[in-house]
Amino acid sequence: THRERDRLELSMLQHGQIMDQIQKEFHAMSNKIDFVDKITQGRTTGNPRRRFFDHLKGVSALIEQAFPEEQYLIDAGLFHCIYGNDYYSFDEVGHRDEIKSLIGDKAEEIVHKFCSLENRSMQILQHKFEPELQKDLYILEYGNILDVALYDIRNHGTLRPLSYFRLQLIIANLKDHYGIEMPPLPFEPKK
After folding, report:
1. Cα(99)–Cα(88) distance, rounded to whole angstroms?
2. Which residues on adjacent β-strands are paired with residue 44?
3. Residue 147: pLDDT band by 50, 70, 90 thresholds?
4. pLDDT band at residue 18 under the 50/70/90 scheme
5. Quick one: pLDDT at residue 70?
6. Residue 20 pLDDT > 70, yes or no?
7. Which among 160, 164, 151, 178 has a CA at the least distance from the CA of 67?
8. Tens digit of pLDDT for each residue in 100-112?
9. Exposed, middle or buried by CB within 10 Å (0-12, 13-18, 19+), for 27?
10. 119 alpha-carbon distance from chain centroid
11. Closest by alpha carbon to 111, among 67, 152, 59, 177?
12. Residue 150: is its pLDDT beyond 50?
């Protein structure tokens, strides 16, 4: 009948639109990953056996698990130390516009602030930024600390007590100030 054929055509059109959207999102993510991989090539974290790229992907994945609908935070997690950190500095001048084009203004501004803070954890934990930025900085720092802690536990069997304390403090602040319930940490310090 006409009605069934129209429904089928609509369904096929919707399927095509969904597939186009998936392909666009995959292409955008692929471009982001390629850029980060190129920029961080050969760099390691504080542990010379771990590629910095793997840490960036780990932080992004942890944020995606907690906030799957917040693409700007997922992107910020992937780029969270692209402008530099305690282990290396990066020339931002030639790349800010390119990074903005990849992840958007909002994510880039969060990343830039995150990278530019001296004694970053201390400043973030002081809860001194405008509320939306503060929330986003908490989330980036949470992903950053959690990824390092998980790596240390898996590969060294150790958990730094300060890392556990900072994670608990961030979780409490996200709940108290923003009503955000974070999942329980997958570990506890040894007593």
Report:
1. 18
2. 51
3. very high
4. very low
5. 96
6. no
7. 178
8. 989 999 999 999 9
9. exposed
10. 19
11. 59
12. yes
The string of DSSP letters for the chain reads -HHHHHHHHHHHHHHHHHHHHHHHHHHHHHHHHHHHHHHHTT-B-SSTTSBHHHHHHHHHHHHHHH-TT-HHHHHHHHHTTTTB-SS-B---TTTHHHHHHHH-HHHHHHHHHHHH-TTHHHHHHTT-S-HHHHHHHHHHHHHHHHHHHHHHHHHHS---HHHHHHHHHHHHHHHHHH---PPPPS-----
Task: Show the tokens assigned to 166.
Answer: 């900072």
Q: Is the confidence at residue 164, as pLDDT, over 90?
A: yes
Determine the residue type at 169: L
Tell me the two tokens of residue 102. Answer: 């990849």
Phi and psi torsions of 116, nearest 5°: -90, -10
